[in-house]
Structures are given as structure tokens and as C-alpha cells.
Amino acid sequence: MEFIKVNKAYAKHIALIQLNRPKELNALNLQLMGEIRDCLKELDQDDEVRVIIISGDERAFAAGADIKQMAGKSTIDMWKVDQFSTWDQINKTRKPIIAAVSGFALGGGCELAMTCDMIVASETAQFGQPEIKIGVMPGAGGTQRLTKALGKAKAMELVLTGKFISAEEALGYGLINKVVPVEVYLKEAVSLASEIAAMSPIAVQMAKEAVKRSFEVPLEEGLHFERKNFYMLFSSEDQKEGMNAFVEKRKPDFKGK
Ligand code: CAA
């Protein structure tokens, strides 16, 4: 891996993917996104890993897709490479993904954070979709995910003016989960990840699947899907362990079986 660093033992059951193009503010070139895709695929199959964190560095989570790589491309070049198809894996990953964001999360960087399941941000984080300023528009989910999170009026303002919002504002809009001082944003993401990693990984993944489904299907279908997943969990050992531990007044020890 050239443009990401991966630590599978960052904390118990937690893997950290760190974007590693600091000089380019972690601009998301094709190779970097391919590395994220391959890495997520592998981590999703690794039973030791229960939660994944994606972070950048203090100055930038990511300042968007790599403009220099795209600048000279034609429509057919873009279509052939279909660069956003590598993003599908992020959406397909069953394990929860937390974005730990400091500094710039712009364009594709904002979209990458929004494609994750939760966002923990430092006070220095800035979110925005500035593609309009370079003659294009968001292409990796920004018009959809930002609108679902912020509502039409604010999303429209951000997408059409390219202006940024602070972490505090993003928190107010419900785009992110937490804002903490820059010194502890990664620690805070790990703490949230550890809380989730202590739960049954099967229940966590099925619950994540059901929450995500709520964005895609009508209520009745979503409720049906939720109920099916709930019933399915009764064939897991973790369900027996969790409920028995409650009855026996002890802490459950979930094995992911
Ligand atoms: N692509 C390629 N290189 C980038 C980049 C990007 N998205 N963002 C920053 N860089 C590079 C800069 O070119 C610069 O490189 P050099 O030192 O070689 O000149 C380096 O990173 C540092 O950047 P700046 O000197 O510009 O740093 P700054 O602090 O003055 O400004 C910034 C920071 C406001 C983030 C500014 O860099 C900027 O506006 N970046 C572009 C943001 C943007 O438009 N993102 C959207 C991209 S398109 C997209 O993402 C499409 C999509 O939907 C997926």
C-alpha cells in the first residue's frame, strides 16, 4: 500500500486506515481509492476486526478527488476508468466504519466521510463540497448524502456556493457525531469504536444493515427487513450469551458466532 497505512491491531478488534498523501492534503487519487477498496474487502473478512476507522492527518482528512489527475480527462476517459466505482466497496462493507476527521474534508473527502457510518471530528474540521468552484459538481454521493443529512436548503447552499462549514455547524446539522479538541479526535474515535466492538459483531452488522436500509426503501419494507434481521439473530450464540448474561447479572462475552 503506497497511499494508505493500515494497522489491524490499533486497539482490540479495531483496524485503522490512515490516508497517507500528506503533501497533497490526502487528495483521493485512483490508486489511493483502490487501496481503500482492497483493504476494506480484506478487513471485512477478518474475524479479529470488528470496527474500522478511516482517518487522515491533522491538517486534512482529504481535500477531495485528485484534481490534477482529473484535469485533462475526457468524458470517455472518466467513463472508462469509472473512478467512483471503487467507492462501492465502502458502501458494501458490513462492519461499521468511523471517519475520524481533522482539517479539510472537502469534495470527495466530505463524501468519503459521509459514506462512513459515523463521523468523529476535531474542532479544526471543515466540511464542504467545493466542486462547483472548479466547474463541476459532487460526483461521489455529495448531492444525495449531504441533502439527506442537512436538508435541502443548506445542502443546496453548500453545493451551489462551495462554502465550507465548521465542525460545530456540522454537529448542529446532525452530519457528524462528535466534536472534540484536535489532540484527542483519534482517541475519541477509538473510544466510540471500542464501545461498538464490545457488542456482538453479528448484531452490530445486522443492525447497521437495517439502519442503512432505511435510506433506501419505504417504511413498510424497512420494518420488514428489520424484523427479519431481529429474528435471524436468534440463531446466533451471541444472542444466547447476551440474554443469559443479562439474566445472570454479568457482562456478556460476545464471540461473533
Ligand atoms: N487534488 C489535488 N491536489 C490537491 C487537492 C486536490 N483536491 N487539494 C489540495 N491539493 C494540493 C495542492 O495542489 C497543493 O499542492 P502543491 O503544494 O504541489 O501546489 C497541496 O495539496 C497543498 O494545498 P494548498 O497549497 O492549496 O493548501 P491551502 O492550505 O492553501 O488550501 C485547500 C487548502 C482550501 C483545501 C485547497 O487546497 C483547495 O481548495 N483544494 C481543492 C479542494 C477541492 O476543490 N476539492 C474537490 C475536488 S473534486 C472532487 O472531490 C469530486 C468528487 O465529487 C469526488
UniProtKB/TrEMBL annotation:
Cited CDD domains: crotonase-like
GO MF, one example: enoyl-CoA hydratase activity
Entries under InterPro entries matching the protein: ClpP/crotonase-like_dom_sf, Enoyl-CoA_hyd/isom_CS, Enoyl-CoA_hydra/iso, Enoyl-CoA_hydra_C
A Pfam family that the UniProt record links to this protein: ECH_1
Chemical reaction(s) catalysed: a (3S)-3-hydroxyacyl-CoA = a (2E)-enoyl-CoA + H2O; a 4-saturated-(3S)-3-hydroxyacyl-CoA = a (3E)-enoyl-CoA + H2O
UniProt cross-references to Gene3D superfamilies, sorted A to Z: 2-enoyl-CoA Hydratase, Chain A, domain 1 (3.90.226.10), Lyase 2-enoyl-coa Hydratase, Chain A, domain 2 (1.10.12.10)
Keywords: Fatty acid metabolism, Lipid metabolism, Lyase
Enzyme class: lyase
UniProt EC number: 4.2.1.17
Functional note: Could possibly oxidize fatty acids using specific components.
Family: Belongs to the enoyl-CoA hydratase/isomerase family.
Protein name: enoyl-CoA hydratase
